[in-house]
Amino acid sequence: MADYVLNAKKRALSTKGALTTLRKEGKVPGVYYIKGSDTISLEVNETAINAFVFTSETHIIKLKIEGENDADCIVKDVQFDPVTDKVVHFDLQGIKTDELMQVEIPIVIKGSSAGVKAGGKLQSDVHKLEISVLPINIPEHIEIDITNLNIGDAIHVKDLKYEKFKILNRPDLTVVTVVAPRAEAEASEEAASAEPEVIKKGKKEE
What we know:
Distance between the termini: 86 Å
Number of strands: 13
Helix content: 10-25%
Shape: elongated
CATH class of the largest domain: Mainly Beta
Number of helices: 4
Largest sheet: 6 strands, mixed, barrel
Strand order of the largest sheet: 1-3-2-6-5-4
Radius of gyration: 25 Å
Order of helices and strands: EHEEHEEEEHEEEEEEH
Oligomer: single chain
C-alpha cells in the first residue's frame, strides 16, 4: 500500500534537555501509535520527516523501526517551532486496512475560472478538508475544478461529491469563491449607500 519509506529508531522517554540535544543533532522526536497497541517513542532524521510535512500531498508511509515489524502509517499531527518553523515533534498514526480513518487531505485547485478571466479574484481560505476513508482509498489530494465559476459564484462542501470517501466538514463551509474586483465592489457599495431612503407614511389618525 505504501510507496514511501521512513526509517526511525526507538528512543527512551526523554527530558527536555535530552530532546534539545537530539534536535541539535539534526533529529526530530515523535511517536507512532495504532489502536490496540502501545505507543512507541521514535526519533528520525529531520530531512526525512520534512519530506512528509512540507508537501501539498498526503502519503501513506511505510515506517521501518529498528527491532519492529514494518508498519503503514500517515502523519497525523506535527508541532513546529514558532520562530524557526522547524518540525519539533510529530505523530504517526498506524493504519488498519479494514477500518475507516479520519484524515485531513490538502486541496488542489484545478482549471481556470471564467470569473477570474473576467477580472474577478479567486479566494480560498480552506487548504485542507477532513474526510472519512478506508486506508486503501486515501487520496494524495482533493482536486476541485473551478472552471465554471463566474464572479459571485462559490463552491461549498455540500457541492463536492466523491465515491471513495466522505467529507466531514460542515456542508455550508465555503471552499472557494470568485469575488468582484475591488474597485467594482467599492463602486457597488457606494451606489447602494447613495440611494435615497424611502419613508412610508401611514394614514393620519383622525
